[in-house]
Amino acid sequence: MTIEVGQKIPAATLSECVDFSASSGCPVNPQPQNVQSLTEGKTIVLFGVPGAFTPLCSEEHLPGFIRLADEIKAAGADEIWCMAVNDAFVMGAWGRQVNNEGKVRMMADGSAELTKAMGLDRDLTAGGMGVRCYRFACILKDGVVTYIGVEGSGEFGKSKAETILDELKKS
């Protein structure tokens, strides 16, 4: 069952790489991040993508949140998280490749722990991608979902940065 407005985000651990090797520029030192403790007392925008470096995700979804990060934070978000069922090294490299510059936390859900707990997992093994998450975005206030928009295949509207900005301005 998909998580709904009014429900608390499930307990889970994501991973994040924020350090990079001086010699290779590759992400290093992934750190576990406890979702429940990181959302306590904060407003978090969490958006999920089917995969790092995929076309729509790299050309529109993540760049939209980077571009509007200051406005989204001015409208009440403490942090913005991008999540994908990829490892922390991939997420760190992807953030660096799109010039994220720390505006969006690049959170890896490598084993789809949070994705499955939220009911947002998709089996894309027939296409060679394994288990991934649906494209979605949600607003969490003190760990409780106040907005969630889950996209169907080929859709991109409910999870856009502009939509989230509008939702934050309403509350």
From TrEMBL:
<protein>
    <recommendedName>
        <fullName>Glutathione-dependent peroxiredoxin</fullName>
        <ecNumber>1.11.1.27</ecNumber>
    </recommendedName>
</protein>
<keyword id="KW-0575">Peroxidase</keyword>
<comment type="function">
    <text>Thiol-specific peroxidase that catalyzes the reduction of hydrogen peroxide and organic hydroperoxides to water and alcohols, respectively. Plays a role in cell protection against oxidative stress by detoxifying peroxides.</text>
</comment>
<dbReference type="Pfam" id="PF08534">
    <property type="entry name" value="Redoxin"/>
</dbReference>
<feature type="domain" description="Thioredoxin">
    <location>
        <begin position="3"/>
        <end position="170"/>
    </location>
</feature>
<dbReference type="GO" id="GO:0045454">
    <property type="term" value="P:cell redox homeostasis"/>
</dbReference>
<dbReference type="InterPro" id="IPR036249">
    <property type="entry name" value="Thioredoxin-like_sf"/>
</dbReference>
<dbReference type="GO" id="GO:0034599">
    <property type="term" value="P:cellular response to oxidative stress"/>
</dbReference>
<feature type="active site" description="Cysteine sulfenic acid (-SOH) intermediate">
    <location>
        <position position="57"/>
    </location>
</feature>
<dbReference type="GO" id="GO:0042744">
    <property type="term" value="P:hydrogen peroxide catabolic process"/>
</dbReference>
<keyword id="KW-0049">Antioxidant</keyword>
<keyword id="KW-0676">Redox-active center</keyword>
<dbReference type="InterPro" id="IPR013766">
    <property type="entry name" value="Thioredoxin_domain"/>
</dbReference>
<dbReference type="GO" id="GO:0008379">
    <property type="term" value="F:thioredoxin peroxidase activity"/>
</dbReference>
<dbReference type="GO" id="GO:0005737">
    <property type="term" value="C:cytoplasm"/>
</dbReference>
<keyword id="KW-0560">Oxidoreductase</keyword>
<dbReference type="InterPro" id="IPR037944">
    <property type="entry name" value="PRX5-like"/>
</dbReference>
<dbReference type="InterPro" id="IPR013740">
    <property type="entry name" value="Redoxin"/>
</dbReference>
<comment type="similarity">
    <text>Belongs to the peroxiredoxin family. Prx5 subfamily.</text>
</comment>
